[in-house]
Amino acid sequence: MKILVYLGTGGVGKTSVAAATALAMARAGERTLVLTIDPALRLRSALRLQEGLLEQQVPLDPPASGELWAALLDVRATLDDAVRMYAKAGMVDRILNHPIYATIADSLVGMQELMAVERIDQLAKRGFDSLVIDTAPSRHALEFLDKPMYFSELVGSNWVKLVGRTYKWMATSPMASLSEKVLDVYARVEAILGTDLVRQVLDFYSIFVSIAEGYAERAVKTVALLKDPAITEFRIVTTPRKAMRDTRFFLDALESRQFRTGGVFVNRTWELDGAAAGEGLVGSLAEWYAAVRQSHAAELDSLRGEFDARVPFIATLPELDSDVDGLPALERIGAWVAARAVT
Ligand SMILES: Nc1ncnc2c1ncn2[C@@H]1O[C@H](COP(=O)(O)OP(=O)(O)OP(=O)(O)O)[C@@H](O)[C@H]1O
Ligand SMILES: [Mg+2]
User: Fold this and answer.
1) Is residue 112 situated within a structural domain?
2) Is residue 317 part of a domain?
3) Residue 98 Cα to ligand 2 middle (Å)
4) Number of domains making up the chain
5) Distance 11 CA to ligand 1 centre (A)
6) Rounded distance between C-alpha atoms, residue 83 and residue 306, angstroms
7) Who lines ligand 1 at CB under 6 A?
């Protein structure tokens, strides 16, 4: 199996390029799945997906020799699945019905980042030839990989382990010998909040602890899979004017964490070649187009000058004459991706 992860700032074309890449891979005979971990779900309109399905095969006309599948990240469903798969038999309902569970599952921002690796793990076990991952625009480029690692450190820390394992006993044992300091902290926090929230959280954690530990273990393995250069390649998507800044930012982020950078796509580049001929408005337009095209070419030259040695490929993708919505536009971008990417 191979995994391709597309990164980029907002609106540069990550979703379009990810979907187009997956389509090109299906055309090349692979069983491919494109997963979006972006809550905005633009993938739905790009591929014209059916409503209500979290995973579906995309029908292609003409049919491909491979298969194209698309999956969305639903945080609640991913967490529910993890509980059903990994909790002990009698515990599933107690966890799913606990009031704290709903609060955690619905705290979208944090959970989105934690559940992305869980979803990648669930899908990586499904026997696809390739997974293409469309990420959310983010100022913290790799939050969806950093957060699970912080979480697993936290879950593995002695204090958290101790609380998870001993809370039930401590809560019911008047003679509990756990440090008074800890009990005092609970009492003070609860007095401030005026609820027994802390106790509820701890009670929940004491039944959820094995799920949290299991999650942490899988997250560490999934991140290792994403770090394996034989399996995973990260690609940066950018646009001509942002190319220098974006490439520097994402390359640094990837290199400092030892992820493999596969390449950079400078999307929406104006490349049509043609003599600037004509008079009046037509002439002015042609001149304007030529000037923009030249400025894009100059940006690309600088980019190559600075980063060629650090990146296996730097390639352009053209500005289309339409939005990238629906399969015909994706087929066009996909053909460019396949022709330009060195894998
Ligand atoms: N090569 C292209 N030619 C023309 N339009 C394009 C091209 N690439 C992307 N677009 C358009 O740009 C817009 C943003 O594209 P897309 O949703 O793929 O970007 P994104 O990086 O995933 O955005 P977000 O950061 O919001 O997730 C869409 O309207 C899409 O149709
Ligand atoms: Mg997107």
Assistant:
1) yes
2) yes
3) 34
4) 1
5) 5
6) 47
7) 8, 10-16, 38, 40, 42, 137, 267-268, 317, 319-320, 323-325
Which of 5, 15, 239, 296 most suits a substitution to test ligand 1, by most atoms within 8 Å of the C-beta?
15
- Cα of 287 from ligand 2 centre, angstroms: 33
* Most confident stretch, 14-28, 79-93, 111-125: 14-28
pLDDT at 302 over 60: yes
Of 38, 24, 31, residue with least CA distance to 2: 31
Ligand 1 atom with the smallest distance to the CA of 134 is 22
Residue in 319, 323, 331, 336 to alter for ligand 1 test, most ligand atoms within 8 A of Cβ = 323
The domain that holds 49 is classified in CATH as 3.40.50.300
Tell whether 131 is covered by a domain: yes
- Residues paired with 195 in a beta bridge: none
Class of residue 28 by CB neighbours under 10 A (exposed 0-12, middle 13-18, buried 19+): middle
Per-residue confidence (pLDDT) for residue 205, from 0 to 100: 83
Whether the per-residue pLDDT at 343 is higher than 70: the answer is: no
SS3 (DSSP) at 331: helix
Question: How far away, in angstroms, is 9 Cα from ligand 2 center?
Answer: 9
d(CA 104, CA 14): 29
Q: Which atom of ligand 1 is nearest to the CA of 267?
A: 1
Output the CA 13–ligand 2 centroid distance in Å: 7
> Considering the entire predicted model, what is its pTM?
0.89
Residue 166 covered by a domain: no
Quick: pLDDT tens for 222-281.
Answer: 999 999 999 999 999 999 999 999 999 999 999 999 999 999 999 999 987 766 667 888
Say if strands 261-269 and 232-238 run parallel, antiparallel, or are unpaired. parallel
Residue 115 corresponds to which tokens in the numbers above?
């559940």
Mean model confidence pLDDT for the chain? 89
Of 88-97, 121-130, 229-238, the one with minimum mean pLDDT is 88-97
292: which 2 tokens?
């923009």
pLDDT at 32 over 90: yes
Instruction: Encode pLDDT of 259-271 as tens digits.
Output: 999 999 999 999 8
